[in-house]
Structures are given as C-alpha cells and as structure tokens.
Amino acid sequence: MIGQDIQKASELLRKGLVVAIPTETVYGLAANALNEDAVLSVFAIKNRPQFDPLIIHLPDFDSASKYTHSIPQKAFFLAKRFMPGPLTLLLYKNDNIPYIVTSGSDKVAIRVPKHTLTLELLKDLDFPLAAPSANPFGYISPTKAAHVEKQLGEKIPYIIDGGDSEIGIESTIIDCTTSPFTILRLGGLAIKDLEDCLGEKLQFNITQNSNPEAPGQLDKHYSPRTPLLLLESISDYKITNQNIAILSFGNQALPENILSINLSVLADDKEAAKNLFHSMRLLDEAKVDLIIVQKLPNKGLGAAINDRLIRASIK
Ligand code: TXA
Ligand code: MG
C-alpha cells in the first residue's frame, strides 16, 4: 500500500516490519536498526548479501552520540553544515548497534535525511532506521514511490509516498575515523563543498571490487537489465543497429530516429542527478538492445554520476 500516513508507518516499524521511506537522495527500505530480525528481513526482501552493511537514519545529528563514540570535532563541522542532507558519516559504533547492521564492522554509517515526512517519522520513533536503497540488490535505485511499488510492492506492507527524490543519487559517504577523513562513496554532495567546509583535502578509497572483507561498494551496481555502453563521446559510436537508445546530456547533436532521453538540456549536473535513475529505468523498459551514454564532465555531481554509469555498464 502507498500513502502518507506516518502514524501507520510508525506502528508497522515498531512491530518489526519493513516500510519504504522517501528521502532527498533515493527511497529507502527501512526497519528498526536495533531489532536484528527486522534488519534481517531488509536483507531478505532486497536479496542483499549480508556482507554489505546498512546506513542508519536519525532525526538529527545530536542523537548520533547515543549510537556512536569518539566523534571527532570535524565530523560536527560537517554535520552542522550538511545535515539534514545527502551526507553519511562513518563513526565508531556503540554496543547498542547490532553487528548485522554493520556486517561485523566496529564502525556504523550515520545519516540524517532531508525529507519532511521521513524526519517526522524518525522523530516519532525511539530507534534509528536501518535503510538501504529500496531496490532489488544490484538494480537501479528508486527515486519515486512508484519505482518501489513496482519491484517490492508485494513484499512490504507500506510505502510512504514523498514525491520525487530531490537529489536523485545516494548520499556521499565519509569515513570520519581516519585522518584526514576518507571518501568511501561519491554521492549527492560534491567533494569540493566538503573540502571547503573541512579546510583540507579528503583521502579517497572508492572500491571497485566486491571484497566481503572490506565492506564498501560493489563493482557491478545500479544496473539496468539492458546492456549499457559508456563512451567518452556518443559520436565515437557507429550506429549499425537502430534498436538502441541514447541517454544524453547537454546540447548534444544526436543521430536522428533514435530513442533518447536528455538528463539536462542545460548541462546542469544537479538536474542530471535528479533525472538519472528514472531515465535509466525508462530506457530499460523501452525494450532496446543497448543503451549508450557518454561520461559527464567530472565537476560538481558529474563525478558521482559517472561513478554510477561506470558500475551500471559493468557486465
Ligand atoms: O542516500 C543514501 O545513502 C540511501 C538512502 C536510502 O539513505 N541509502 C543507501 O544505502 O544508499 P545503500 O544500502 O544502498 O548503500 C549503503 C552503502 C553500503 O553499500 C556501503 O558501501 C556503505 O554504505 N556502508 C554502510 N555501512 C557501512 C560500514 N559500517 N562500513 C563501511 N561502509 C558502509
Ligand atoms: Mg543501494
């Protein structure tokens, strides 16, 4: 069922059930993070391997001290500036966070989502919500309630409809237990904005492999069922088969009579991020043999969008 009944969602979550929640990045599949059985059902519904840890969602960063310890001063600077917002901070966990949430790690990922309905829900609960993106494992993340309904609607009792996700790609993840801090996943907050706030450069550890010993991002991810070919330039591609589709960006000259969707005619990286996953889903449903797309300029959210396109193009 889809609706906006926060009281109903709250009751289901208290009973240990799973509810889909809107956020400004993507929709999440939420459960009581302190209830191991509830968390296990999140993994089961998504068909997600248990070595891939979950982010916990809180109503504000002040409550992070209940679930984490040794928070460095610079993490407070980031939180003050960017939370609520598309930022996740990795911190040392307290004993009250079960290891099923962190895949056995002593560190837990914390996020305060910027969405009125979900913040209202989080304030009503006396536990954090563990929530991965609400898509079957490996598929494109959802940015609309209808995306969740289509794929997981029969497996969960309730989906909160909070409209389209404003940012459209997942949160940027920063490990605050290293010095300087380390970026683990590119996302909805541009690197430059983070470094400007911190007054120093970040380290990078963006994994390209799926090593269960080092939980992180898996290489193949965000994948449409239709093969996706990522090019430096669309004009590199010699069209022989007409049954292809193009995901374009900016004011690009495109071959005629080919299905195409433009991520942002004005070449705006934020607009492209917002449109990315929905456009990929539309082209995936168009029954073409191949989707071609070219890399975006690496500035702003372009780098995070390219990261998703690279993973989506891995066979
Ligand atoms: O924007 C977002 O972050 C969305 C919304 C729903 O909040 N959530 C999201 O969750 O993208 P998910 O499960 O699709 O991605 C979580 C990723 C993991 O794959 C892993 O890379 C990292 O966060 N992560 C979570 N907990 C971690 C931990 N304890 N140690 C290292 N990495 C962790
Ligand atoms: Mg995900």
Beta-strand content: 15-25%
* Low-confidence runs: 210-216
Average predicted local confidence, pLDDT: 94
The proportion of residues forming helix, as a percent range, comes to: 25-40%
Beta-strand segment tally? 16
Total domains = 2
Number of helices: 10
What bound compounds does this protein have? threonylcarbamoyladenylate, magnesium ion
Question: For this structure, what is the CATH homologous superfamily of the largest domain?
Answer: DHBP synthase
Order of SSEs: EHEEHEHEHEHEHEHEEEHEEEEHEH
Shape: globular
What is the terminal-to-terminal distance?
34 Å
Quaternary class: single chain
Largest sheet geometry: 12 strands, mixed
Helix-strand makeup class:
alpha/beta
Over all CA atoms, what is the radius of gyration? 19 Å
CATH architecture of the largest domain: Alpha-Beta Complex
CATH fold title of the largest domain: DHBP synthase
The top level CATH class name of the largest domain: Alpha Beta
Task: Provide the fold topology.
Layout: E1 2-3, H1 6-14, E2 19-21, E3 28-32, H2 36-46, E4 55-57, H3 64-67, E5 68-69, H4 73-82, E6 87-93, H5 99-102, E7 107-111, H6 116-124, E8 129-130, H7 145-152, E9 158-160, E10 172-175, E11 182-185, H8 191-198, E12 203-204, E13 228-231, E14 244-248, E15 259-262, H9 269-284, E16 290-294, H10 302-313
Parallel strand pairs: 1-9, 2-9, 4-7, 6-10, 11-12, 13-16, 14-15, 14-16
Antiparallel strand pairs: 2-3, 3-8, 4-8, 5-6, 6-7, 10-11
